[in-house]
Amino acid sequence: MLIQEAHWFKQQLASLEPAQVFPMCNVGSSTAAFRTRDQPWIEEAIFAPIARQGYVVKHLDAKPAPGVDIIGDLGDPEFRKQISCMEFKSAFCSNLLEHVVQRDAICRTLVSIIPSGGYLFISVPFSFPYHPDPIDTGFRPSVEELAALFVGTRLVRSAIVTGDAFLKLRRRDPIVFALTLIRCLFPFYKPVCWWRNRGYVTWFFRRVSASCVVLRKD
């Protein structure tokens, strides 16, 4: 998640009535270490303020790890049924949909786990290099295309949120930055991945961005 993206969602959450938003399910949450150490602005801007106010957020991910409250695969129909029964009033899903093949099914699930009047907070990359985790489908929708996936909802707010240049993002972590530079020198290692981004060289000075939407279920 981009720093600017986290602060955009912070503003949207602050503008809504908490009773309509919480409890919330954070789908594709990753781990506590990811939210607090790798990308600390996620915790600082979004989840720490929520916790300080005493509201409930449950973090859902496929990998068992500290900071994951609900473990499971949304590609599993039985697991989707379980989540639908947990009475969440909103769902937060950031930068997940570009990494899944069952995108339509997951979008239907996200709609199904909230009540009428509940909210979805969704983002995906709009302009961003190929980044498999473990795959990247290349899904880079406009806000209108993203909102259209969630049948039975209406668009409340949206934005293409622009972040820093890609190279600046990498420089926040010296190890990741060094590995990125080294990777540029070895096009023959996983050449398809290298060629898709020219070893990230073509992205070094381009500013990345994300499509962000807030949706309300009818």
Biggest sheet overview: 7 strands, mixed
Number of E-type strands: 7
**Oligomeric description of these chains:** single chain
Distance between the termini: 28 Å
Low-confidence stretches: none
Mean pLDDT: 88
Rough outline: globular
- Order of SSEs, N→C? HEHHEEHEHEHEHHHE
Any overview of this molecule?
The chain is α/β, with parallel strands linked by helices. Helices cover 36% and strands 22% of the residues. It contains nine helices and seven strands. The chain has helices at residues 3-14, 32-38, 40-52, 77-84, 103-112, 143-148, 166-171, 174-183, 191-197; strands at residues 24-27, 57-61, 70-71, 90-94, 119-127, 153-165, 207-217. The chain has a seven-stranded mixed β-sheet with strand order 3-2-1-4-5-7-6. Helix 1 runs parallel beside helix 3 and helix 2 crosses helix 3. The protein is globular and about 50 Å long.
